[in-house]
Write a structure and sequence with these properties.
Number of strands: 4
Strand order of the largest sheet: 2-1-3-4
Number of helices: 12
Radius of gyration: 17 Å
Order of helices and strands: EHEHEEHHHHHHHHHH
Strand content: 5-15%
Length: 220
């Protein structure tokens, strides 16, 4: 029920706004969304995530769950009677967790530096990000989704960044479609899912938001 579940997040977020929302949608879980600018450090944010004071925060029956990948696993376990996000096979589950962790740890820093930094720092970040895209395209191979024929944990983790792809391409001056055709076809398949389309932010608004941040922090 929506009164049992709420999500603290911010509309341009690469994490909860996309990943956690996708997971909840796949499970058919109703929830209350609470727009939370992480820079404001609201009392509710500090109360529910006192260690990091960051979004997203999933709250279920009054208890907070922090970090997006942990939230995905929690959602999968609590609402286990509906669409599974992780495979049941132990090895396949471990592999999904590995690639989810890879995306979580490797993508964020170079992704934001491609649009948020300048000069050599941006060049280095772009090179690093392209290598990560190449690694993920290789792992995808000819599979429909990262888990095979089933949309799941790793797909959700990576599609969380999709709204920022256009901004990354614009400021990084490269084309994901041209350089990573298999990855592009994968994104098109993911975008056929209602859970994905209804969770991601508008890419053009993300570009506008990126310009605002670049002006604010002098990265133009």
């Amino acid at each position: 029920m929506a009164d049992e579940v709420s999500l603290l997040d911010y509309w341009p977020s690469m994490f909860g706004m996309s990943t956690t929302k996708m997971a909840l949608a796949e499970k058919g879980v109703a929830y209350e969304y609470k727009e939370t600018d992480p820079r404001a450090k609201t009392s509710l944010l500090v109360e529910t995530n006192p260690i990091h004071k960051k979004i997203p925060v999933l709250i279920h029956k009054g208890k907070p769950i922090c970090e997006s990948l942990i939230q995905l696993e929690y959602i999968d376990e609590v609402w286990s009677d509906t669409y599974p996000l992780l495979p049941s096979d132990p090895h396949q589950k471990a592999q999904a967790r590995f690639w989810g962790d890879f995306i979580d740890k490797k993508f964020y820093d170079p992704a934001w530096k491609v649009w948020g930094a300048t000069g050599e720092e941006q060049v280095t970040a772009k090179k690093e990000l392209l290598e990560h895209f190449k690694t993920l395209e290789t792992e995808l191979g000819d599979k429909t989704y990262y888990g095979g024929d089933v949309f799941g944990f790793v797909d959700i983790a990576l599609m969380g960044y999709y709204s920022w792809f256009k901004a990354i391409e614009k400021f990084g001056e490269f084309s994901i479609e041209a350089e990573f055709p298999k990855l592009t076809r994968w994104t098109m398949r993911c975008l056929e899912r209602e859970s994905v389309v209804n969770s991601i932010a508008d890419s053009d608004k993300i570009i506008e938001y990126a310009y605002v941040l670049k002006r604010k922090y002098g990265a133009e």
